[in-house]
């Protein structure tokens, strides 16, 4: 048994998705007595993997008597803390942690680069992964994207672990201490999981740095008021490395004369913004964060430059799909909150037909009014309940149309758009009313565009 872990012999994994399966396989590989419990039906491929590793499980229900025997519970990030089952398990005095926390405890010796933020974390993680690959660093990429951290610890030895981490994953972290933590921004999101208190969500994001040591680095957005205010009240031991789009910094990354400038430990890196593969202000900030981390890792300047010039971007994030009759169709399905959609609309340089809607997570749309007035010629609502969107934007645009399927939404947008316009899917909402997830929503959008 790992001598550094607090975990006793009996491990229960709650949730049989990607993170749950990874945690169960890692726990089994370490010789723990593992039981997985999923309220939904475990899919066939996952059930096969559990059987192959000799992991016992239940599917379609949670049996409290079996769960309460645990010394530690590894909880899926999709399961909220406020449900009765979790309350009962906490009352029983059982430690409940996330898969990220568990994997870290099992492999403390491999340094972690962890990236979080309300927006841009997938793009920044993907860019960082590309940087490491170009520099021929032996690193895995996972967490909130791709394979679970735990599965990689179990099966893929590496010199570095690069992780995208969500607030839900951080909520179950206590000892998790990345060598380099990146916090891109904090804007209201998932407030339904945080008692509609923005402060609770801020606390969740700041957990990424709570256990870092003085030899670690915390790269953060110095333009983000939520972060700079939180830093005043938190005892962060890591070395602070800010990045800014608006202020000149003696230490960190900033913009001057349309150039990214990074000054760190007597190292100077500069690169013209127009040479960056990722366009738009928000992507310049994401690029600065990744390049700062690469500089701390002592990756060669020429390798960093080459990577920033040639990176191709991320599917479902401002992804140009097709141009039809001189109309550009853009897939930004990953914009599941207002702030992400703000960036998308802000980057539109032509009149835009905006496809918006889904499961509202407590959205405040007021930040979008000015942009919608200026950039949007028509709105196509795509959701089961579009009332709040119509109420907010009916005065901003003349045309608002309700639809209930992606095919219908794309056909309506096709009729509304003229040569030179954009059609932008940027929902500002979660996808679970009509789609499996944002990837399914994005793929359906691309299929519907190709079928026009």
From TrEMBL:
Gene3D superfamilies in the record: Mur ligase, C-terminal domain, Mur-like, catalytic domain, NAD(P)-binding Rossmann-like Domain
Molecular function as annotated in GO: ATP binding; UDP-N-acetylmuramoylalanine-D-glutamate ligase activity
Domain of life: Bacteria
Enzyme Commission no: 6.3.2.9
Compartment(s) where it occurs, according to its Swiss-Prot or TrEMBL record: Cytoplasm
Domain Mur ligase central stretches: 115-294
InterPro entries with a match to the protein in the record: Mur-like_cat_sf, Mur_ligase_C, Mur_ligase_C_dom_sf, Mur_ligase_cen, MurD
GO cellular component term of the entry, any: cytoplasm
Binding of ATP, residues: 117-123
BP term (GO), one: regulation of cell shape
Biological or metabolic pathway of the protein: Cell wall biogenesis; peptidoglycan biosynthesis
Keywords of this entry: ATP-binding, Cell cycle, Cell division, Cell shape, Cell wall biogenesis/degradation, Cytoplasm, Ligase, Nucleotide-binding, Peptidoglycan synthesis
Residues of the Mur ligase C-terminal domain: 316-429
Reactions accelerated catalytically: UDP-N-acetyl-alpha-D-muramoyl-L-alanine + D-glutamate + ATP = UDP-N-acetyl-alpha-D-muramoyl-L-alanyl-D-glutamate + ADP + phosphate + H(+)
Broad EC category: ligase
Family from the record: Belongs to the MurCDEF family.
Record's function text: Cell wall formation. Catalyzes the addition of glutamate to the nucleotide precursor UDP-N-acetylmuramoyl-L-alanine (UMA).
Protein's name in the database: UDP-N-acetylmuramoylalanine--D-glutamate ligase
Organism of this sequence: Nonlabens tegetincola
Record gene name: murD
């Amino acid at each position: 048994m790992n001598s550094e872990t607090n975990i006793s012999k009996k491990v229960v994994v709650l949730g049989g998705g990607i993170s749950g399966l990874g945690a169960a396989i890692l726990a089994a590989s370490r010789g723990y007595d593992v039981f997985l419990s999923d309220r939904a039906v475990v899919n066939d491929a996952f059930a096969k993997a559990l059987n192959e590793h000799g992991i016992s499980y239940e599917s379609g229900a949670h049996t409290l008597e079996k769960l309460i025997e645990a010394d530690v519970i590894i909880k899926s990030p999709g399961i909220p803390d406020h449900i009765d089952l979790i309350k009962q398990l906490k009352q029983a005095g059982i430690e409940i942690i996330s898969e990220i926390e568990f994997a870290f405890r099992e492999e403390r010796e491999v340094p972690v680069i962890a990236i979080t933020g309300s927006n841009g974390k997938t793009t920044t993680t993907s860019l960082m992964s590309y940087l490491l690959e170009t520099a021929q660093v032996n690193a895995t990429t996972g967490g909130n994207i791709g394979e679970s951290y735990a599965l990689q610890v179990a099966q893929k030895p590496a010199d570095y672990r690069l992780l995208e981490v969500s607030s839900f994953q951080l909520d179950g972290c206590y000892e998790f201490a990345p060598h380099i933590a990146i916090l891109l921004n904090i804007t209201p999101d998932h407030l339904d999981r945080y008692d509609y208190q923005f402060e609770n969500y801020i606390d969740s994001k700041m957990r990424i740095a709570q256990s870092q040591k003085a030899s670690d680095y915390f790269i953060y957005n110095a333009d983000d008021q939520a972060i700079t205010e939180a830093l005043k009240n938190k005892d962060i031991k890591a070395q602070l490395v800010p990045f800014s789009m608006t202020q000149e910094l003696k230490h960190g990354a900033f913009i001057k004369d349309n150039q990214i400038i990074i000054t760190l430990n007597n190292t100077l890196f500069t690169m013209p913004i127009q040479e960056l593969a990722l366009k738009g202000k928000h992507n310049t900030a994401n690029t600065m964060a990744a390049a700062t981390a690469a500089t701390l890792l002592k990756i060669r300047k020429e390798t960093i430059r080459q990577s920033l010039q040639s990176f191709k971007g991320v599917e479902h994030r401002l992804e140009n799909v097709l141009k039809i009759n001189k109309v550009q169709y853009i897939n930004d399905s990953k914009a599941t909150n207002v702030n992400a959609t703000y960036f998308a609309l802000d980057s539109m340089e032509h009149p835009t037909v905006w496809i918006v809607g889904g499961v509202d997570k407590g959205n405040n749309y007021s930040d979008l009014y000015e942009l919608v007035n200026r950039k949007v010629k028509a709105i196509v609502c795509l959701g089961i309940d579009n009332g709040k969107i119509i109420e907010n934007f009916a005065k901003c645009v003349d045309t608002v149309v309700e639809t209930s399927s992606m095919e219908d939404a794309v056909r309506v947008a096709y009729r509304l758009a003229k040569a030179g316009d954009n059609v932008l899917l940027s929902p500002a909402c979660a996808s679970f009313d009509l789609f499996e997830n944002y990837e399914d929503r994005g793929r359906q959008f691309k299929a519907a565009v190709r079928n026009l």
